[in-house]
Amino acid sequence: MSATSESNSVAPFKLRYACHLGFLSRDRPLFHETLGTAEPTAHIAYAATQGFAGIEDNWFMSREAVEQARIGEALNRFGLELGCFVVSFDPSDYSWVSHDEQAIAKIDAEIAAGIEAAKRGSGRYMVMAPAALPGVPFSIQLTNVIRHLRRVAGMCERAGVILCIEQTNRFGLPGMLLQHVLDAWAVVRTVESPAVKLLFDFYHVQQMDGNLVANFRQCRDEIAISQIADLPGRCKLGDSEINWPAVLRAVRDSGYRGLIEYEVVPATEGEAGEQAALEALRRVDAAI
Predict the structure, then answer these.
(1) How far is CA 276 from CA 34, 236, 261, in A?
(2) Calpha distance 176→19 (Å, rounded)
(3) CB-based burial of residue 253 (10 Å sphere; 0-12 exposed, 13-18 middle, 19+ buried)?
(4) What pLDDT was estimated at residue 259?
(5) d(Cα 128, Cα 167) in Å, to the nearest integer?
(6) Coil, helix or strand for 38?
(7) pLDDT tens digits, residue range 65-115?
């Protein structure tokens, strides 16, 4: 199938999905082989023809300011939303779990830079995940995370952005602090700011906690954005035992209207693998 043969006649999705501009690398956006380029605006235009509601760009902060602005302009032109982008996610950086002048200065600078990038890209969802400092009790590290979040929450509120806290899994990211979704939810509830919310990644939750529907319902009021992919290896939906139509039906019925980012890595190389991932999403969505 050629990208140039696509039209706007595809059936609309029932939920607001986002494809990505590069999950593992900014050089490998989801439809790289389909379009033959990694140029972001080409992918934004294509996403619009396929019925996506937004674009995720993990590597947005690594782009030049001019390119960030160009992405924002394209999103506005095609009526799409910028989803998550990472501002702080480094297993070797212990700033969030420490509390000294150096940690405060580093975090404040990261948040300030993220806010400026969000303005250029017409976005508002910044992601952070704190690293775990070996040998320090979990409760002490958690307390420091909350102290930092309460300080930067005001900056985010005034800028109209949302700092999304992400829980990860210990198998793929063993050095991170928040490995269970209810721990991340508890942090958000404790901070009590409209600018500090939860990123609910179904892939991580399935590996660490399971019980996807119940956990989503428990966290629902604090979820700003969500992500989906199947196991193992963030493959296309339908490759595991997860009943995705039932899960996403529960998401819809909860009243959630945020983006659902399709953080998939096609198992098959080339355009065929990318289109198989897209068709898998269409099949699941149609079955909701």
Answers:
(1) 11, 8, 17
(2) 25
(3) exposed
(4) 98
(5) 9
(6) coil
(7) 999 999 999 999 999 999 999 999 999 999 999 999 999 999 999 999 999
Structural domains in the chain plus CATH codes: 3-286 (3.20.20.150)
Which of 44, 36, 29 lies closest to 2 in space, CA to CA?
36
Across 14-24, average pLDDT: 95
Q: Find all residues with CB under 8 Å of 83, minimum gap 6, and list them.
A: 18, 54, 55, 56, 57, 123, 125, 225, 259, 261
| Spatial distance between the Cα atoms of 190 and 60, rounded to a whole number of angstroms | 29
- 3-state SS, 196-243, equals EEEEEEHHHHHHHCCCHHHHHHHHHHHEEEEEECECCCCECCCCCCCC
The label of the residue with tokens 């096609």 reads 266
Amino acid at 102: Q
Residue position matching structure tokens 């909701």: 288
Q: Over 50: is that where the pLDDT of 56 sits?
A: yes
Which residue type sits at 114? G
The pLDDT of residue 4 = 39
Number of C-beta neighbours around residue 149 at 10 A: 24
Are residues 190 and 146 in contact, defined by beta-carbon separation less than 8 angstroms?
yes
Q: What is the pLDDT of residues 102-150, one digit of tens each?
A: 999 999 999 999 999 999 999 999 999 999 999 999 999 999 999 999 9
7: number of CA atoms within 13 Å, CB side?
A: 2
Calpha distance 95→111 (Å, rounded):
13
Q: How far apart are CA 130 and CA 88, in angstroms?
A: 8
Q: Quote the pLDDT of residue 9.
A: 61
H/E stretch holding 152 = helix 138-159
pLDDT confidence of residue 79: 97
